[in-house]
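Cross-check.
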Amino acid sequence: MANTKELSVEDKLRAIYDLQLIDSRIDEIRNVRGELPLEVEDLEDEVAGLSTRSEKLKGELEVVEDLIKSKKNAIDEHKEAIKKYTKQQESVRNNREFNSLTKEVEFQELEIQLAEKQIKEMKASIEHKKEVISQSKDRLETKSNHLKHKKSELEAIMAETAKEEAYLTEKSLEFQNSIEDRLLAAYTRIRTSVRNGLAVVSIERGASAGSFFTIPPQTQVEIASRKKIITDEHSGRILVDSGLADEEKEKMEKLFSKF
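Predicted model, tokenized:
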């Protein structure tokens, strides 16, 4: 709830402009961090993804290596079978038995050829996977180092600005409590609707700060008189004269210079 103590229009303008200066300073602090927290989060996700992929590839590599061992064992078994069938041919009683054993030998030889072809293909697959694992390892190392650097950078900024931000956030609440509800609501509505967060601006060279639209001389006189709260007809921002703005900036600079 805002303070119910009646303030003059000039006091209201000073209070709302001071609040703007404090909130703008908080915006500056947060802008220094910029996209860094999101960048760190994205890098953490990417590093986790690369680690998972690398582990998956290593698992696949082990499976292929086990398959090669299995195929090599099968080749040994086929060779043993060939020896057995060849020996049996020495004691056959007729051509039918001999031909039957010959077919068995041929079948075992075909199985050996197939297994050798599969081993060759799997070895090529292993080489490819090893290359991909090596590349993933290099990329993971690069991204991990980048993440470490960005985390360190973010932590340094947080450590440097956290105290000031907490102090100014508290001051912002103090000033909000000194401003009447209707004026504070207007300030909040304007501030959240504009990209730069400026709800209160001073007159600069006959126009509101950051605007190209000239303010009529009579309106400028009214603003300088500080007898009523006037808003820019184009942007809706609350307007203050440059003299008041300069005085409040100087006052707030003393507040900001503590950090």
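The mean pLDDT is 92. The helical segments are 9-33, 36-89, 95-177, 181-193, 217-225, 242-256. Passed to J.P. for a second look.
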